[in-house]
Every structure is written in C-alpha cells, then in structure tokens.
Amino acid sequence: MRSVPEAFRHGPFSRQSALAAGVTARVFEGVQFRRLHEAVYVHRDHEMTWDDHVEAARLALPASARTTGATRLRQLGIDVGSPFPLHFVVEGDLHLVLDGVFLHRTVKMPPSDDVGASVEAAFVAYCADVRLVDAIRVGCFLLHQEHLDGVLLDQILTEERWRRGVPETSYVLPFLDDRPRSIPEAELLAYVVFSGLVIPEVNEKIALRDGTELTPDLHFEDHDLVVEYEGGQHADDRGQYLADIDRFAAYRRDDKAYEQVTRELMRSPKAVVRRIHGALRRQGYDGPEPDFDGAWLLLFRRLEDLAREARAA
C-alpha cells in the first residue's frame, strides 16, 4: 500500500490538491480513501466532524459558494436548527446535487465574507424555513450578543425585497427582544408573552433584603415571583452548579418565591406556561388563564405561511 502524506490523513481534501502533492491517481482506486463528493476524498481512518463535512462541501462547490442560514449560524457557535443538510448559497443557475447539502441559487450573492453570508443575510435565509418561535429564539439571542447589525439588516429588507426570507424576517422583527441572554430564555419569554400571561421584567437586577443583588431570567415584580431557566450547562458546569445553589439559597433566605424551568420541561411548552401560571396564582395573581388559542398557535406555524397571510390581509 502506497504511503500517503500526513496532510491527507486528517480531513477532507480535493483530488486535485492530492495529485499536486504527489499522490498518484491509482491510490484513489484503492481502499485508503473514501469518496465524499465528486473529486473530494477523506482517509478511511479519519472520523468526520461537522466542520469536516462543511469543508468537504466547500471543496466540491464553486469557490464563490458561501454557507448561509442555519449552517452559517452554527459556524458562529450558535446551536440552531438541524446540522444537516448543510446550507450553501451560490450565484447563478448552478444545478449541482451533493449528499447532505442544500444549495440555494440566487441572482445576486448576499453580503458575505470569505467563509459565509453575513449574520444578517444568514438570519434572513434562516427565517425562510422555520417556525415563528424558532426565529424569535435565534433573533433575540443574536440581538443580545450584538451579532445583528440593524442598519445592515434593514438594507437587506428594504433594498433586496426579492431575496428569499425577507417577508418572513420582516414579520418576526416586531417580536424580537434583545434582553434574553440565551436561546432558551428567549423561548421561555415567548411562551409567557404569547400565552397572554402578565409580562415580566427580563434580566433586570433585583436587590434582596440582605443587600444581595441577583438578575433573574424573568421577574414578575407585582407578584414577587422570579422564574429561572436551568439548562444542561447548569448541571455540567461545576462553577455554574455552585452559583445556582447560592442563588436559590439567597431566594429562600429572602422568602422570595421562585420557579425553576428545566430543559426537560421546555419540551412541553404548555406545561411550562401552566407551571408559571400556577406559581403566579400562589402569589395572588387573579388575571386571565393562559390562552392556548389565538396568538399561542402562531408560535408553532411556519413563518412562510404567516408572512403570506399577512401580505394577503
């Protein structure tokens, strides 16, 4: 078996680059390499990561292709959408089919850098394919992290109205809030708002009687209730875990009513709202019951349909 240069053992590569480095064409007929796409290979012993799949697709596509939508957002470290298919955009009428890749064709490339579409363009593309709640979750987080430039986003929405995802993004913008610090927190707030419960303060400091300052995720000030989201990192991160213990101990010393919402509970949105509503009732809330019709149902509909109905109206 012919020796393969080390550079071609640890990730995808193009056939052309291997030939240029002295790898003979006959090697590709053997068992050392696996074919990923046309003229793109990987060594049989290499375990592909998600980033490797993105690189393999990039090698198989024209040099002008860029990642977009959920794929581009994932490259920025945002756990959003499904890892596959990968989303790329290319200018022109290119008809190319790649396994695990969705290729968007456009008459004009969106604002991009050397890797992918701009965050603003990627968010617009993302909104074209998702439900209202998904776009709210991601959009709020992007705003909080200051990833979204409002001026650049407005340019796309006003100057390139023909672009895929523009009507959907325009629809979701009024529902975005830059206060939630994480994607689950943004989702939690959306459940409260769209169910018709009283609107809480979000991530605002409160002072306990002993002078301790805390920043609860949600604070229903008129009912003296705080709600905290507890995700997986709260258990996996020892420092976060200890901080949580201290925080809830401080609430108890202050006789502050609090409710914890776990990642597992979030899988049942109505159960989340009922849990918060029950806590509010124990604190004297006498407002309306949660409404799981009307606005609530919009959360779980595709933005594409909502935007089309809004235009028709």
How would you characterize this protein structure?
By secondary structure, the protein is an alpha+beta fold. Among the domains are: 1-60, no CATH class; 197-290, no CATH class. Helix content is 39%, strand content 15%. A four-stranded mixed sheet has the order 7-10-11-12, sandwiched between helices. It has a three-stranded antiparallel sheet with strand order 1-3-2. The protein starts with 12 loop residues before the first strand and ends with a helix. The model has no long low-confidence stretch (mean pLDDT 94).
Secondary-structure class: alpha+beta
Q: In angstroms, what is the radius of gyration?
A: 24 Å
Please report the distance between the alpha carbons of the first and last residues: 68 Å
Q: What's the count of strands?
A: 12
Q: What's the overall average pLDDT, rounded? A: 94
Write down the overall geometry.
elongated
- Helix amount: 25-40%
What's the order of the H and E elements?
Answer: EHEEHEHEEHHHHHEEEEEHHEHHH
Number of helices: 13
